[in-house]
Amino acid sequence: MRRFLRPGLVALCASFVLVGCPDKQPAGQADSGVAEAPQDVPPAAPPPASFTVRYQLTDAGTDLIPLTAEERPTIEPTSSLELHSSIGLRNYRIRLFDEAERAMISDDSAEETPEAVIYRIALPNPLKSGHKYTLVVDPQTGTSFTDTLGREVQELRLEFQVAGEKEKDKPAPAPKNEKKKRR
User: Fold this and answer.
1) Domain for residue 120, yes or no?
2) What range does the domain containing 63 cover?
3) PROSITE patterns of this UniProt entry (predicted)?
4) Is 145 within the bounds of a domain?
5) Burial tier of 179 (Cβ tally within 10 Å: 0-12, 13-18, 19+)
6) The domain spanning residue 137 has which CATH number?
7) How many domains does the chain have?
8) Considering the entire predicted model, what is its pTM?
């Protein structure tokens, strides 16, 4: 009986060894005795902040047309601009300048979330035909502004021109002809 027990015991031990050794297992069988740790894959960081500017046609309702940062795009006269960021921003300001680098008077509003900023500029009068304007996103205070992840964001300067013949400003009043009276 001892004779039969030894070969059976050896076969039983060999089967335990084979099951416990992954390199000795037949192909296609998983090792059920060892749990694999899940791979920790860090989430991909979102890309840097990018901006889209849209404007509303004054006579076409609420249709907004995107502007790209190509070299000085031409737009139709409008009194409504929107700037969309691809991520939330901190310590920023947005201004619209005329071609004399004067800030335009406007009624602005902002919707801010960690995921984005939507900044609306409502002008009291449409932009003048033929004139050039610059939309600037820069720091409110200090020398830089950041996104909600703390990364510095480059200043944006989008120059554009309004289509049409250049409107002239109101002519200056003619100088009064003052004659000196002699007494």
Assistant:
1) yes
2) 51-162
3) PROKAR_LIPOPROTEIN (PS51257)
4) yes
5) exposed
6) 2.60.40.1220
7) 1
8) 0.65
Token couple for 39: 């791979």
Residue 39 placed within a domain? no
Q: How far is CA 117 from CA 4, 27, 148, in A?
A: 81, 54, 11
Would you say residue 124 lies in a domain? yes
- The answer to whether 115 touches 147, Cβ cutoff 8 Å, is no
Asked if 80 contacts 56 with a C-beta cutoff of 8 angstroms, the reply is yes
Query: Mind listing the pLDDT tens digit of every residue in the chain (183 residues)?
Result: 444 444 444 444 444 444 444 555 555 555 555 556 556 666 677 788 888 888 887 655 545 566 666 678 888 899 999 999 999 999 999 999 999 999 999 999 999 998 999 999 999 999 999 999 999 999 999 999 999 999 999 999 999 999 999 866 666 566 666 666 665
